[in-house]
Structures are given as structure tokens and as C-alpha cells.
């Protein structure tokens, strides 16, 4: 009997080796650490910092930045929202998936609730990532073209696989969890119309959905085996591409031999990942203080497929209503780098800066049809100076991705900076980072104790 796509996917997950390759384990630990650092910073600044009181104060699971525990579902919801709220969390650029904002909160909540051991946690986290990336690669940018954020569509499914493994679900249970989780898939792009922070919550909802799907299956709820196939299946509904199920079947064939997690990119600046190579291109100009006054015009060539996120509608992108909204604004972020020579977390707090807005008015854009996106995240700018001369800068791919990977020290440096932004003492942060890097399972209880002692 021919297996369905879901059956091929789940069978591949169950066949993953108990002992992961060392480079995969190290990548998993670093991505867990990065997500925790971003979430801690977000608990003190940014649009989701008021969420700490949302979680019910009764349970074994940690809410980042809070002194009391909560339920697994609430921890996944709040932590996932925190991690995604600063646009500082990792991305698999080819699949356009923010994996750790969903998978780290879901897996860590399930691990705390079930007292899982470090190797089980790392393996579940890796399995979730491998499923998530394959879901994205099966329909390249398809979810986005249909109006959905891919992370919030595929995140519940991948997360359910990860927490299902930790819960000890068998093959049939995991198949049920995949199908039930697909009932939670959602997350549209309407947040772009006014810079709404609901995009952050989409990752949290996906993480919560992973926990809920697993719990529903444990309670007896079942799901269809052909959840990916047909016009009314997962890809037909969310990507308008039923044929993507066939591509997922093919992509599932190398589970256990091809590891996509190691390709996931860390973020060096807290804004939409599409904007990162543009920031780097402006930085390459080497502008001195006040050098932005020499700029007559900056033309940005935007990879086709990115424009609806970072360039449209252009007038609104040039004049964001609040600094947090500017995380998705090509002209504002380009101008920010030109004016200040860096892009920091603090740049997206409060109202937009008047000097930055003035430079943003001199930024223009055009479509770049054959840029290499989504396999690459490139950028090209053409700067016309006030003396009439022109300079072009091209960035072939984003910093931190598979072609330009970060060393572990840079991930740890980012984590320590985020902990400082969260007001945590360096003595704790350094020890915590070493623990995660070496063991993969942090003592989140120590974080709760630290927050409690700080009052």
C-alpha cells in the first residue's frame, strides 16, 4: 500500500539516529541559546514586554523574564511571542522559516513539563527544524504569496512532531499530531498594513498549537493521514499548490542524511531578515559622521518576492508611524544605518527619528527579478552623491547564513548582549551560555530564581 506524504515524513523522523552528528548537535544548542537570549531581551523591551502577566501563574514551565512558572501551553505562547517580537530571531532563508521562535519555546515547555533529558531535548528540537524547513522548501515562498507567514502555517506541524517525540508518541500518534496540528495553521500578513505586532504572536500561537495538538492526541483526538495531499490539503489551502506534497515526499527521503538546521541563519540586527544585506551594503560605504548629508539618492534593488514585506506601500514605508513598525521598512532601516552607522534594539523604541526620516525620503527602490532569492538573501544599492558621482554596492547573501556562517563565539556574544539588555548580571549570563553550549539543556529554574531574587 502506498504511503501518504505524512507517513513518509513521520517514518523519516522516527528513523533519525539517536546520536546526532556533532555539528548538528552544536548548531541546535547555539540556536536554542540564541532564541533564549532574544526572548530575554524582549521581556524587557519591545512590543511584547507586557506579556509576562498573561501566563497563568501555576505550572512547571518557565516564562522568560518571569519569576513564576506556568502551564506548557501558556509558556509556549508567551515565550514564542517574545522570541519573535524583536525580529531578531533566526531564519532558514531558503525555506523562509523562523524555526527557533516556535520550536525552542514548544520543546523547552514540553521538556520542563516532562522532565526530559538533554539529549532528548536536542534531538526533538533538531527533528522539528528538519520538518519545518522541508515544509518550507516544498513550497518555496508559496505560503507568503498566498498571504500567510510560513512560520505560523508550518510551525504547528513541525512543533507537534518535536513535542510528540518528547511525549513518547508512537508512529500513529505522531501522524495524528501532524494532522491535528495542521488545524491550527494560520497567520496572515495583514500586520504589515500598520506595523501591528500580531506577527510576533503568530510564532507564539504556533508554539502553543504544537503543545495543544500533542495534548489533544494524548486525549484521543485523531487526524487524517492524507493531510498534505489535494486541493483541500495543507499545501493546497495555504500555498495554493497541491503539488508541493510531492516535493515534500522527495524532501523527506533524505531525513537523517541531509541536515538543514546547520544552514539556518542567525540575525545580527533586529529587523526583518530581508533588510540585513541592505544594512551591510550601506555599512560598506564607510560613511563618516554626518556623511549622510552627501547622499542625494539611494536606489535599492529589491529581490522579487520581498517587496510586499519591505517596500509596499512605499509612502507608508518611508514614514512609519512608530519605530517598531520600521523593522519592516526598507527606506527607514537603510537611512538608519546611513545616519547612525549601526542598527540596534534601542533604535526601534519610541517614535521614528526625524533625521532618519529625512534620509529615508531620499531612498528609492526597484524590483530585482533574478536576484537568487529565496535561495539567497542578496541586496544591491546604487548611491548617487551630491557631487553627481555614483557608487554601487552588492551583497551576494546575508551574513550569518549557510554561505557566511557565524562562529560559536559570535552567537554567545549576541546572547550576552541580549542578557545585558534584559538587565541580567554578566556572571549569570556567561555561566548560562556555557551550560547551553556544552549540554544543550539550560537550567531555566535558575533564571526564575534570579528574576525572583531581583524582585
TrEMBL record:
<feature type="domain" description="MmgE/PrpD C-terminal">
    <location>
        <begin position="270"/>
        <end position="420"/>
    </location>
</feature>
<dbReference type="InterPro" id="IPR045337">
    <property type="entry name" value="MmgE_PrpD_C"/>
</dbReference>
<dbReference type="InterPro" id="IPR005656">
    <property type="entry name" value="MmgE_PrpD"/>
</dbReference>
<dbReference type="GO" id="GO:0016829">
    <property type="term" value="F:lyase activity"/>
</dbReference>
<dbReference type="InterPro" id="IPR042183">
    <property type="entry name" value="MmgE/PrpD_sf_1"/>
</dbReference>
<dbReference type="InterPro" id="IPR045336">
    <property type="entry name" value="MmgE_PrpD_N"/>
</dbReference>
<dbReference type="Pfam" id="PF03972">
    <property type="entry name" value="MmgE_PrpD_N"/>
</dbReference>
<dbReference type="InterPro" id="IPR036148">
    <property type="entry name" value="MmgE/PrpD_sf"/>
</dbReference>
<dbReference type="Pfam" id="PF19305">
    <property type="entry name" value="MmgE_PrpD_C"/>
</dbReference>
<feature type="domain" description="MmgE/PrpD N-terminal">
    <location>
        <begin position="18"/>
        <end position="242"/>
    </location>
</feature>
<protein>
    <submittedName>
        <fullName>MmgE/Prp family protein</fullName>
    </submittedName>
</protein>
<dbReference type="InterPro" id="IPR042188">
    <property type="entry name" value="MmgE/PrpD_sf_2"/>
</dbReference>
<comment type="similarity">
    <text>Belongs to the PrpD family.</text>
</comment>
Amino acid at each position: 500500500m502506498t504511503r501518504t506524504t505524512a507517513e513518509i515524513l513521520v517514518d523519516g523522523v522516527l528513523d533519525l539516529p539517536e546520536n546526532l552528528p556533532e555539528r548538528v548537535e552544536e548548531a541546535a544548542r547555539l540556536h536554542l541559546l540564541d532564541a533564549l537570549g532574544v526572548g530575554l531581551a524582549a521581556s524587557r523591551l519591545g512590543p511584547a514586554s507586557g506579556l509576562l502577566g498573561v501566563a497563568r501563574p501555576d505550572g512547571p514551565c518557565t516564562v522568560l523574564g518571569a519569576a513564576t512558572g506556568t502551564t506548557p501551553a501558556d509558556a509556549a505562547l508567551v515565550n514564542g511571542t517574545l522570541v519573535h517580537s524583536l525580529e531578531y530571531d533566526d531564519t532558514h532563508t531558503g525555506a523562509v522559516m523562523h524555526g527557533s521562535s516556535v520550536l525552542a519555546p514548544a520543546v523547552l515547555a514540553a521538556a520542563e513539563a516532562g522532565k526530559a533529558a538533554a539529549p532528548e531535548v536536542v534531538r526533538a528540537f533538531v527533528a522539528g527544524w528538519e520538518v519545518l524547513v522541508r515544509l518550507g522548501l516544498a513550497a518555496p515562498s508559496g505560503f507568503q504569496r498566498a498571504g500567510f507567514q510560513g512560520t505560523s502555517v508550518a510551525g504547528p506541524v513541525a512543533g507537534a512532531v518535536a513535542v510528540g517525540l518528547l511525549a513518547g508518541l508512537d508512529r500513529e500518534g505522531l501522524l495524528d499530531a501532524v494532522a491535528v496540528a495542521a488545524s491550527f495553521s494560520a497567520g496572515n500578513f495583514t500586520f504589515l498594513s500598520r506595523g501591528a505586532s500580531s506577527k510576533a504572536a503568530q510564532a507564539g500561537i504556533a508554539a502553543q498549537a504544537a503543545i495543544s495538538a500533542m495534548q489533544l492526541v494524548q486525549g484521543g483526538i485523531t487526524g487524517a493521514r492524507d493531510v498534505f495531499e489535494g486541493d483541500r490539503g495543507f499545501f493546497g489551502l495555504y500555498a495554493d499548490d497541491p503539488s508541493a506534497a510531492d516535493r515534500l515526499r522527495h524532501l523527506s527521503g533524505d531525513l537523517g542524511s541531509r541536515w538543514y538546521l546547520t544552514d539556518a541563519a542567525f540575525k545580527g540586527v533586529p529587523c526583518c531578515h530581508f533588510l540585513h544585506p541592505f544594512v551591510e551594503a550601506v555599512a560598506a560605504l564607510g560613511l563618516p559622521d554626518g556623511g549622510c548629508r552627501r547622499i542625494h539618492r539611494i536606489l535599492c534593488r529589491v529581490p522579487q518576492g520581498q517587496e510586499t514585506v519591505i517596500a509596499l506601500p512605499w509612502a507608508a514605508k518611508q514614514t512609519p508611524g512608530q519605530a517598531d513598525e520600521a523593522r519592516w521598512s526598507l527606506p527607514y532601516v537603510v537611512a538608519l544605518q546611513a545616519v547612525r552607522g549601526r542598527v540596534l534594539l534601542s533604535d526601534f523604541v519610541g517614535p521614528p527619528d526625524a533625521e532618519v526620516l529625512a534620509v529615508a525620503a531620499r531612498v528609492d527602490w526597484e524590483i530585482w527579478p533574478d536576484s537568487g532569492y529565496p535561495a539567497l538573501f542578496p541586496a544591491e544599492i546604487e548611491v548617487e552623491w551630491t557631487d553627481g558621482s555614483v557608487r554601487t554596492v552588492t551583497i551576494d547573501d546575508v551574513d550569518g547564513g549557510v554561505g557566511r556562517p557565524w562562529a560559536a563565539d559570535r552567537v554567545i556574544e549576541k546572547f550576552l548582549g541580549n542578557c545585558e539588555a534584559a538587565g541580567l548580571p554578566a556572571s549569570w549570563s556567561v555561566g548560562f551560555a556555557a551550560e547551553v553550549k556544552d549540554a544543550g539543556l539550560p537550567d531555566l529554574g535558575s533564571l526564575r530564581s534570579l528574576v525572583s531574587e531581583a524582585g
